[in-house]
Amino acid sequence: MADSGTRTLISQAQLRRGRGKFLYWTLLTVVVLGFTLVFLGPLYWMVTGALKSGQEIAQTPPTLWPRDPQTQNYVDAWTNLDLAKLMFNTFYYAAGAVFFQLVFDTAAAYALSKLRPAFGNVILALMLATLMIPAMVLIVPQYVTAIDLPIIHVNLLDSPWAIWLPLIANAFNIFLLKRFFDSIPEDLIAAAQVDGASPLRTLWSIILPMSRPILGVVAIFAVTAVWKDFLWPKLVMPSPETRTLSVGIYAFSGGTPQNVVIAASVIAAIPTVIIFLLFQRNIMSGLTTGSLKG
Amino acid sequence: MTAPGVTAKPAPAPARPVSKRGRKLRDNLTGHAFLIGAVVCFALFMWYPMIRGVVMSFQRTRRGETTWVGWDNYTRIVADPSFWIAWKNTFLFTALALVVGYVLPFFVAILLNEFRHAKGYLRVLVYLPVMLPPASALFLFKYYAYDPSEAGLFNAILKFLHLPTSEWMQSPTMTIPAMVIASTWMNLGSAVLIYLASLQNIPGELYEAAELDGAGVWRRIWNVTIPQTRLILALLAMLQIVATMQLFIEPLILANGAGTQDSATSVAYLIYQHGFFQNDLNGAAALGVIMLLVLAAFSAVYVRLTTKQD
Predict the structure, then answer these.
(1) Does B156 sit within 8 Å of A61, measured CB to CB?
(2) Domain B81-308 CATH assignment equals 1.10.3720.10
């Protein structure tokens, strides 16, 4: 965060005096109101709209506040779409994604940053190269691979591994973690080695405790990635029992009243919004450290 | 980059009598043991599919039998009338999304960077839509905002302002702008935050000097802000083009796929259609390869243009 002392486009002094001060406060008020309307307004509309009856939602002009708020749409969404099941599935995939990404991506980043085995740089380059490949280009061959894994010939459809394994192959995470590990002084590692600590022990007792912030960022990104993803879970989780929230709501949207679909969408969005409000600092710092200076 | 660190230092001799080569081998093995999990996943779900996609595009699998068919998949895909419509729509969407979704966050970030109050609140607001599951947000747009009757949110606002209302997704000309609005609303936040971070790295003295030279606000943006954030600007433009060219969930949810008179069909949606509905995974793979080539060409031209200016 820039403190208020930093000079930006317009000087502080200018904003404190007469016309500048007036302009500043007018603009600030306009922007705060405008942003609230633009970014919070639709969410308000969504939450209250799902409280309206089908009749009221079709009425012109639309009502700002539901005349006769009823929670029936939310209840219907919860029971008819079996949201509890969908929510559990999504949560389960997200938890697994966090676990496997943390274990395998941290291990890989540690190896690339500190152990530096032969061909480490080649492997890192090959990993980073995947960042350049658009996801849509790979979707078909990835699907073909998932339904018949090479060599062992296992079909991953409807198995959580179909979500977890591809998520481990996340070059952005490895890059983020490696950069963080690179900043941990080499002397610390050398000291641990002198004391006879094995590489695993060094990772566990020295590196990981120092890396809590970045591990938090990776974990949060893993949860939101699973929660937001649509096409891949739609393809690899075809049966109603294994669907994620987004896919389940989409699958039901055809034969369900609009307000119930919206109510379900609201419920599906609640967990990510809560995660965001709780961890906004970590999320925002992770977003910017990952993309900047890289 | 650091020098080969640990080994270069005068470390105390190890107690065990291990030969230098043996120790090096052991260290390498340990390193690769830590890497193996991630490498296997990359191999299975990134590197191998990349090759497999190209191979598949020259094959045809029918009733479990795979044969080489040369360019057949490509000619079939290109002959499909939807192919050109999809590219036209995708390019139009990418161009519009670039004009709106690229310029807008930059100015939003410049504005937010000037404020000394309500900073946290504004940041949270801008980023909030990014956290919503896209399917949830798009149903909101589909059912409430883009309702073609006057009960829809957007039409109600337009009517309130005495402006002509629109049929949104039911009008072929409005389909793409409507998708751009929804997509920009959902994705603006991450670009704003990235710009904000890079704006904070601009040394204040540059603005001071420019001001002393009599440069107004716009001149300072043009001569200080933009050159100082050029790298991030260039990087985000590239990332955004690649992301918007993969337009998929917006047409799928907002327009039920193809949209009114094919006005929403995108290349990514065609890949999905061919691969998973028309039982033509090989054709879909060919389309994927075409998309990769187009994006690679784009990137090459882009890199050349941006590096030439230096």
Answers:
(1) yes
(2) yes
